[in-house]
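New to this. Explain the following:
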Amino acid sequence: MSSKIQQERGLLLLSTVSSFSFAVIGIVLGSIVGSLVIVFDGAYSLVSLALTMLSLGAAHYINKPEVDKNTPQFAMIEPSVIAIKGSVIAVMCLWSFYSAVEAILAGGRDINAGVALAFGMVSVVGCYATYRYIKLKSQNIDSALAQAEAKQWVMDTVISVAVLAGFFIAKLLMMTKYADYATYADPVMVVLASVYFIIVPVKMVWHSVHELLDIRHHHGHQLAHAMNEINKIRPVLL
């Protein structure tokens, strides 16, 4: 097994373990403190985990020695995986946006801002460290799958920063005459995060679909050229 393949699998495995850890912590802690945005953070990590498993499966198949790497089907694997990942993340953002708007219309959500702030700080450091490591290592091995993982961790890091900033604001509001507005901090953070995050997966899907169309177009030209060559020599053979 080449060094590139080992590094790619190692990065995807690291992303898997990190996603699982943040998913469990986020969903459990978010449910305990009653925070929609922390649950959103954990749910995103859970979705990331499932998508990373998809990337691991794709990487395992791509690196099989018996797989013909010169076919258009092979070339379509990576962009197809990235398109699927982007689509799933986009759907999750839309669902989270809807849930947050419902919470705002219902009068917001009471949360334990102190616990949430502690979670936010741990999450920011952990997500950013994972992103930086995968980003740097993926550049050395030129892996589209690993680079897609880095983009997922950028999104998770920004979610964590939004969580931290939002709960800090909520904590300040609780100490002023505007304490009633603190209940809106949690769902408003989810709305802002959802609107921001929908851009990244849409771009992922857009570029991947274009790449798939280019591969199909290129293969179509090759097939047409081959048929023309066959037609040229057919009279000679006859």
